Automatic annotation (TrEMBL):
Organism: Rosa chinensis (China rose)
Protein name: Putative leucine-rich repeat domain, L domain-containing protein
Length: 320
């Protein structure tokens, strides 16, 4: 380009600026398309500039734990071990959380919905996650009060907690001990979502009394919670959602509109009938995304326009 031109080449943009631009692309585009444009863009994708915020929730929903683990390891390594935000859905087990705690020590936001981590591993690694301010452990059936107590004890800066459950499991065991753990160890909470948790009134009252900075409490679907409207009005900065449409007076003090990054059937507790629904997904050749020493030659992948949810439990639809 001539020196007197008023325009500059895209490849001359500083890596930080390119990283901000590439954040608007999908995971597939970032990993497989951008590196082919030019070498400078490829270096940006291979470095930490694109991976300070890692969000692979949609991509990870229908992948096997092994595939998700390998993607996490690669992206956290590219971030130079310093991502501020990490969001991944399902598939995670104790070893995955241990890896995250050991190699992503600057996390501020951690979202692990549907993970299969245990109380024991959370108690072990909570001290390494002390920088977290926002945590999502929704739909995690393998943890309970011990995990929440450990998080509250070590994550002193935690201001947002999401611990929602499935609406069709209301007949399961009580989760009051989780509510008491939150009340006893998380006094700095400002945002708390407990949708469809199986809790009663007493732990919710303790949360309100022990968390003076709380401005949003979402107990939608917690039908055992009975709180008088006059009591709620003692907390002028508090917005309450729930527990159900039959609770008169709650709507008057609830100004928060429920929203979530989860699919609608997660919120409403609906079961997908695989025979009635067809969902299309765009996939990319994951073999191109891995580092050279992480070749996936042992697995066959192909491009598909979409597939039925009957195949959702597999890494990829079978080759026709």
């Amino acid at each position: 380009m001539e020196e007197d031109s008023e325009f500059r080449n895209w490849d001359e943009l500083i890596p930080d600026a390119l990283g901000l631009i590439f954040k608007n692309l999908t995971l597939e585009e970032t990993l497989t398309v951008i590196p082919r444009v030019c070498k400078s863009w490829g270096r940006v994708v291979a470095g930490p500039y694109c991976w300070q915020e890692i969000n692979i929730v949609q991509w990870s929903k229908f992948r096997s734990p092994q595939i998700v683990d390998r993607m996490l390891q690669m992206l956290i390594a590219r971030s130079s071990g310093s991502p501020r935000k990490l969001c991944v859905s399902g598939a995670l087990d104790d070893q995955s959380l241990l890896f995250i705690a050991d190699h992503a020590k600057s996390l501020q936001t951690l979202k692990l919905p549907r993970s299969a981590v245990s109380d024991l591993i959370v108690e072990q690694v909570a001290v390494k996650l002390s920088t977290i301010t926002s945590l999502d452990l929704s739909y995690c059936k393998t943890i309970g009060a011990p995990a929440l107590e450990a998080i509250g004890k070590h994550c002193k800066h935690l201001t947002k907690l999401q611990r929602c459950m499935y609406g069709w499991e209301l007949d399961k065991d009580s989760q009051d001990n989780e509510g008491f753990a939150i009340a006893a160890t998380m006094p700095r909470l400002k945002h708390l979502e407990l949708r469809f948790m199986r809790i009663s009134t007493e732990p919710v009252l303790q949360i309100l009394l022990n968390c003076p900075e709380l401005h949003l409490l979402n107990v939608l679907g917690c039908y055992s919670v009975k709180i008088d409207e006059k009591f709620v009005k003692k907390f002028p900065g508090l917005n309450v959602v729930g527990p159900g449409s039959g609770n008169e007076g709650w709507d008057d003090c609830s100004t928060f509109s429920v929203s979530s990054s989860y699919l609608d059937w997660d919120l409403m507790g609906c079961v997908i009938n695989n025979d009635d629904y067809e969902v299309e997904y765009d996939y990319f050749d994951e073999d191109e995304a891995w580092e050279d020493d992480q070749s996936m030659a042992d697995v066959e992948f192909s491009f598909y326009d979409g597939f039925y949810l009957d195949n959702a439990g597999f890494d990829w639809p079978p080759t026709p």
